[in-house]
Amino acid sequence: MRSRLFKRNYLRVKEYYPASNVRLVHSGNDYFDTLEKIIHSAKHTLHLQTYIFDEDHTGKRISIALKEAASRGVSIAILLDGFGSKSLSTRFMRELKASDIDIRFFSPFFSTQSIYLGRRMHHKIVVADKSIALIGGINIADKYCGSTTEPPWLDYAVLIEGSVCTELDLLCRNIYTIRNHLKRLKAKRFFKKEDRNINSAEEALFVKIKQNDRLQGKNQISRSYIRAIRNAHKSIYITGSYFLPGTRLRKALAAASRRGVEVNLILAGVSDVPAFQTATMWLYDFLFRNKIKIYEWKKSVLHGKIALVDEDWATIGSFNLNNLSAYGSIELNIDIPDEKFVREFKQHLHSVIKNGCEEVFPGHLNNHWTAKLKRWFVYQFTRIIIKFMVVFPYVNPFKKFE
């Protein structure tokens, strides 16, 4: 069902791409079973781009599926971040290469040519045959899959089918073929204007592709968050790992709360980066003053990056609400202005809050001056580190695996 937000933006329909199916995918078996199914069903082309690809049970499981697809003649291109996937062994990489799989690293952490700190290839996307795609915040590693003794990290992705996947395939090709930030290899566009027909009977859903990449002049995800929050009328739900938003977004959330919008934040009760969690807690007083509800997820590490506004709008992807995602990394989100999808996702978040979260109230924090000083210091230090990481120049961001 087309949402109120879609109708308001009808004249800007060129920003939308048609999809025949959109489904929420959860971390754990749901995600990796879906990913494996996409790889096994691929016939011609497959793009896989991710921040972390670990050489553990889950990574080996996916690599086996990839090599089997390559043996069927599927053309496979893999792009991994040079820092996030730095632990992969040479043997593991050579086995993929020997299976006729094209594989490259984006921005090794250190290089003889330059220093690369902030600009990471952070998005997570798989596109097969220009017809089906999987996009979200889930990396390829055991911790996102879980086990019989450990629950998976809480995260999400979205399965998309339809014409939009042609554009996503093009996006992957363009990123894979970047040689440096001043020169991009030209790729033929697959969409013509008439292809984006909002009257399509077969593809009744419409989604937006949003990217953040400061070097390419793209700040789409940040603006999308601000616009949606400013237009909110009833409710806002944000699941935010590494939650350290900038001033504009904090002010937008506070203004929404003052308008009577119910603002709910699901934040990390368990974090793989404790310093980030402590820095986030420095913002709790601001959030409490503005009557914003805080729920901490306690069952596992929180890694999700999603937002829902009213019954109109959802966004899912790799974008964290902090300046590293806003100004440093290459990020990818999908905006879904579909009432049915948003309503079902909101019901799921109610279940998450009820069954795995603890609501945080002002009295729950340790307000001794030493605890406050620690939170303030970690907050300031974390922000300084992030600023340091996003100001470095970037030259030749690729290292090709030999």
Textual characterization of the structure:
The chain is α+β, with helices and mostly antiparallel strands. The protein folds into two domains: 4-210, Endonuclease, Chain A; 216-389, Endonuclease, Chain A (2-Layer Sandwich). The chain is 35% helix and 25% strand. The chain is built from 13 helices and 20 strands. The strands form three sheets. Strands 1, 11, 12, 13, 14, 15, 16, 17, 18 and 19 form a ten-stranded mixed sheet that branches. Strand 16 (305-309) and strand 17 form a beta hairpin. The radius of gyration is 21 Å and the shape is globular. The protein starts with a helix and ends with a strand.
The CATH class designation of the largest domain is Alpha Beta
SSE-based structural type: alpha+beta
What is the total domain count? 2
Fraction of helical residues: 25-40%
Flag low-confidence runs: 5-13, 109-114, 179-201, 393-402
State the CATH topology of the largest domain. Endonuclease, Chain A
Report how far apart the termini are.
49 Å
Morphology call: globular
Tally of helical segments: 13
* Major pleated sheet: 10 strands, mixed
Query: What is the CA-based Rg, rounded?
Result: 21 Å
By CATH's scheme, which homologous superfamily of the largest domain applies? Endonuclease Chain A
Number of strands: 20
Q: What is the average of the pLDDT values?
A: 86
